[in-house]
Amino acid sequence: MSSEKSVNFNITLKQIWNLLLLWFSLTSDVGRFAYAATGFGLMAFKYLVEAGLIYEYAGKIFSPVDFVNPAFSIRYQYLAPPAPDWLAWVIFAWSLPFLWIAVTMSVRRAANAGVAPWIGLLVFVPVVNLILMLVLACLPQRSQLMYDNLNKTVPVINNGIRSALLGMVVGFGICLIMVGLSVYFLSSYGASLFLGTPLLMGAASASIYNRPHRRTLKASIMVGQLSILLGGFGLLIFAFEGIICLVMLYPIAVIMGLLGSAVVWTIAATSPQRSVSSCLPLIVLPLLVGAETVIHKACEYEVSSSIEIDALPELVWPHVIGFSELPSPPEWFFRLGIAYPCCATIEGTGVGAIRYCEFSTGPFVEPITVWDAPRRLSFDVVSQPAPMHELSPYRHVHPPHLDGYLRCKRGEFRLIALPEGRTRLEGSTWYEFDIYPQNYWTLWSDLLIHQIHGRVLEHIRELAENKSSVKQGSQQ
Length: 476
Prior knowledge:
This protein has about 475 residues and is of the alpha+beta class. It has helices at about 1-25, 30-60, 65-70, 70-80, 85-110, 130-140, 145-150, 160-185, 190-210, 215-235, 245-270, 280-295, 315-320, 330-335, 440-475, and strands at about 300-310, 340-345, 355-360, 360-370, 375-380, 405-420, 420-435. It contains 15 helices and seven strands.
């Protein structure tokens, strides 16, 4: 009996291993049944997990229609408050392995069906990806011979240094051309720039590296990643960008570059005559940049933070409408150049008064729209400074995204009386963000705005509690 259980256990482990190879390797053939079962099965599984998380932590029902809707503004309504801050990060990280499976299996399924493997890259295109999955799930198998090449040992012809350097130079050129076209000509920080460009940098550098001789997967990926690093270094040296934004961009650039290199290596191995055609999307990318500038729509996001204060709302209110200068920030990211609040003053009282919140980069000008002392203070933002001073080897670097791409629209403080003379102070900021993909960049902007809120709320608490203790001491 124990021997029978051991055999069954070994069979189960082997089945799991084969399934993981099908999903994550680049050398497993993909038939139409495996592709259909994996694609639609994992899509349903991903939806159920995300819908469960959103219902549990945000109390909202995430519909299947909204799940397949590519507009981030639709998805954001499920991740906005009262959803916890970490939920968006979890769902983003959770989506990465599904992205790998979708892209690599689509490319391998296309090769298995005898069509151009790079067509599998269309899985990145919203709406088109669903049609692509249906088509690939129906196409019959055409050839097994192409995938036999994947499992052959790669002969060491030469070290390929010349091909590697040429590949990295081409990737670097793609980076500069796309930044110039998208940012400085069309004034667009779109998904084509941040997703398509590193993908094609990795793809182009790996494609050149694998010609005229096929190289190893590890070496192809390394050349693609070096191309990404070289592109970032070039943007820094030519003063197109600063270190802070490049560091925030690097994680997503690494992932997309890895995908591009891996996909092209697969194409070069399965159909060497088509390895150059794998870079055909280069022709389409500038058109996508132009399309984004026409169809993109700004979405308003909300960030809310709160703190409990051991003082009555009447004692907290004066420090909400204006507060004294804050000490220098201990947080390292503020010291590197991220804008941080320094003090706040107000001119006038009631609706129409003007509040000035001084940041390290300049003042926010905030006309009061709601004055409900000591419960609620609301204001618009009619003028704001740059969100950061870019860290750079040069004295002054001011890339275009520092002006007008992150727009604070309004803000609000709410004071809620609690038992035992305490107050819950809530702060909210509403802003628009014109940098894509928003489901990635708003993770960073929300995080930084929370840090700014925390710095202000903590300072208000210290001022109010000190005043409360002084008042109690004088009464005694």
